[in-house]
Amino acid sequence: VRLTEKMIIERYSHVMHIVSNVSGQLEPGRSAIDVLRASFPAGTVSGAPKVRAMEIIDELEPVKRGIYSGAVGYIGWNGNMDTAIAIRTAVIRDHVLHIQAGAGIVADSVPANEWQETLSKGKAVFRAVEMANAGLASGDLDA
Q: Which position among 24, 66, 104, 135 bears the catalytic label?
């Protein structure tokens, strides 16, 4: 296992993220499915220790996460895999848009700041929907 990029700051319209990339060579007899099984859900969205954190999430969160904080990606016929954590997502069910957002709560978190971060992340998704609606309504898909 090799860390190829460490704590790179990526800036987006409403938030910033610290990103690291890891690559590795599988042991003989292991597959991409083994990697998925061992690494999900990602600790950045579940917390640690992972099993207990997931139990607490199940107790406290009123709805299941669905695709949010899961993974999107591909596994190629050649065994290559590339995945990303699904954190800026929206689901439309019965003509209603649903989003989920959260913040990384740690020992020295300030609750008001974490709440503001959560709102900012959600706002980015709603803004994208507003832009799409404006383009569709006007016929100008570049709106």
A: 104
Q: Which of 14, 83, 88, 122 is catalytic?
A: 88
CA distance 133 to 143: 9
Q: What is the pLDDT of residues 76-108, one digit of tens each?
A: 999 888 888 888 889 999 999 999 988 888 889
Dist CA 43 CA 33 (whole Å)? 18
Look up the pTM and report it. 0.69
104 part of the active site: yes
Respond yes or no: is residue 68 known to be catalytic: yes
Q: Are 48 and 66 in contact (CB under 8 A)?
A: no
Q: Which residues contact 75 (CB under 8 A, 6 or more apart)?
A: 32, 33, 81
Catalytic residue among 12, 17, 24, 66: 17
Residue 100: CB atoms within 10 A of its CB come to 21
44 is catalytic: yes
Report how far residue 66's alpha carbon sits from residue 69's, in angstroms, rounded to the nearest whole number.
8
Selecting among 44, 65, 83, 102, the annotated active-site residue is 44
